[in-house]
Design brief:
Length: 454
């Protein structure tokens, strides 16, 4: 009996935790292609990369994302301080795995005094985020985001010319949206749809007035709403507009619209964003119900959807969040950014049949070495070809020619480099084109020249 338990435990088959998954080749080639494309577009818009840590003080997310949001109240992976932790300053801090990146980037902006850098500061980051959501297609507990943020500390004299500042903000908003649309365009993501909205300006009270009015209207129809929406009337009435419940749709359609309640400044800024998008040839659709889930957004919000994703079809969400840096203890700073959901982006590309680089890992050349004599030459040839950036497969054991060619074919190689006694004696390799079986004999420099040109 006593022996049985550990044996059973030893036989346990481990699996990835629910809501997490392994990303495997050849899919990872597409992931890399997406990331390379994003990096190249970011560079062309003057963005630099930041790599914040994957966990931070829980308080940072509570303050930045909002304690009332689902993300903070239910979905974070949080660790209490351990009694054994080293007696350092942050030992009593409860920490959480990051559910999103904006809070960390704003924290880093303050911590590294980036307000002293030439403004605005344009940053991007990529990596895993963690939310304890109910897993389904396109929704994971560890998922990946490609995130970009523009931060600009407000100059003391900025208040003197509000119109100029608003016009500048509109240009920044439009350029950020143009940038993310450029990434999707380069990747040939089909049926991309951009929706925009303005949710007003909290400090200017137009949002507060609207939210009060919305709450009053929602209270009148409270009994007809589902439990989630009923709860949100108190906690965050704007989120009711997000509801996907079918029976709530006709009720929501009659609610007051924020566009009718924007103050003059917000109205002017929203109009300018639309003009700037048109100037850049970026197509958009207005959606007055687009409010975004996170508390810190203001004025411009946007969401981008793509095909093939079912109900989880948002591949990117973003918006303006002036004031967040200040809320975290920094100087008055404007901000706008977005997060692309990389998992969903990849799913959508794959659904559209795009897996462009799926064959990139297959070798170009398979080295078929066939006698002990040829082994050293094979090792050196592999080294030289790889140094020239050529993908090479070198089998660890000697193989008969037929077997070697069969394996080369299975791996998807285009050429077999045949090395036997004859080739070693002659100082020339036999290069066989696997598609048509033709062969040529080449010295190593000629071989390199030939393969590099492919
Ligand atoms: P958010 O940070 O909530 O604004 O989300 C930005 C984007 O990240 C969304 O549009 C999704 O594409 C993606 N995303 C958010 N949560 C998840 C999740 N649990 N699994 C996969 N992608 C997600």
């Amino acid at each position: 009996m006593t022996d049985a338990a550990p044996k059973k435990e030893q036989r346990r088959k481990f699996q990835a935790i629910r809501g997490t998954r392994d990303l495997l080749p050849p899919d990872t080639a597409l992931w890399n292609q997406v990331e390379e494309t994003a990096r190249s577009v970011f560079a062309s818009f003057g963005f630099g990369e930041i790599r914040p840590p994957a966990f931070e003080s829980t308080d940072l997310f509570a303050r930045a994302v909002g304690g009332e949001t689902d993300i903070v109240s239910k979905e974070m992976y949080t660790f209490a301080p351990s009694p054994e932790s080293a007696p350092d300053e942050s030992a009593d801090d409860t920490i959480s795995l990051r559910p999103e990146a904006t809070a960390s980037i704003c924290r880093a902006y303050i911590e590294h005094n980036m307000q002293q850098l030439p403004q605005p500061v344009k940053l991007y980051c990529m990596g895993p985020m963690f939310r304890r959501e109910r897993p389904q297609k396109g929704r994971y507990r560890q998922f990946y985001q490609i995130d970009a943020e523009v931060l600009e500390t407000v100059r003391p004299d900025a208040a003197k010319d509000t119109a100029k500042e608003l016009a500048k903000d509109a240009v920044v908003d439009a350029e950020v949206i143009e940038m993310v649309m450029t990434i999707f365009d380069r990747l040939k993501l089909p049926s991309v749809r951009l929706e925009i909205n303005s949710i007003g300006h909290a400090a200017d009270n137009c949002r507060r007035r609207y939210v009060e009015k919305l709450r009053a209207e929602l209270l009148k129809v409270k009994d007809k709403l589902g439990a989630d929406s009923q709860r949100r009337i108190e906690t965050s009435p704007l989120r009711v507009l997000d509801s996907k419940l079918e029976h709530e749709q006709p009720i929501i359609a009659t609610l007051p619209k924020i566009a009718d309640h924007l103050c003059d400044e917000c109205k002017a800024q929203y109009a300018a964003v639309k003009r700037e998008l048109e100037l850049r040839g970026v197509f958009y659709k207005e959606n007055w119900r687009l409010v975004r889930g996170l508390d810190y957004y203001m004025r411009t919000t946007f969401e981008i959807t793509a095909q093939g994703l079912g109900s989880q079809n948002a591949v990117c969400g973003g918006g303006r969040y002036d004031g967040l840096v200040e809320l975290l203890g920094g100087p008055p700073t404007k901000g706008i950014g977005f997060a692309i959901g990389e998992d969903r982006l990849i799913l959508s590309l794959q659904e559209a049949g795009i897996s462009a680089l799926a064959t990139r890992h297959s070798p170009l050349v398979y080295i078929a070495w066939m006698c002990a004599n040829a082994y050293a030459a094979a090792v050196h040839a592999a080294k030289d070809l790889r140094a020239a950036g050529i993908r090479v497969e070198l089998p660890p054991v000697e193989q008969k020619l037929g077997k070697a060619l069969e394996r080369a074919d299975k791996l998807g190689a285009q050429y077999a480099l045949i090395l036997g006694d004859n080739e070693v004696a002659e100082g020339k390799w036999t290069l066989k084109t696997l598609a048509d079986g033709t062969q040529q004999k080449l010295t190593e420099p000629k071989l390199l020249d030939f393969l590099k040109k492919l």
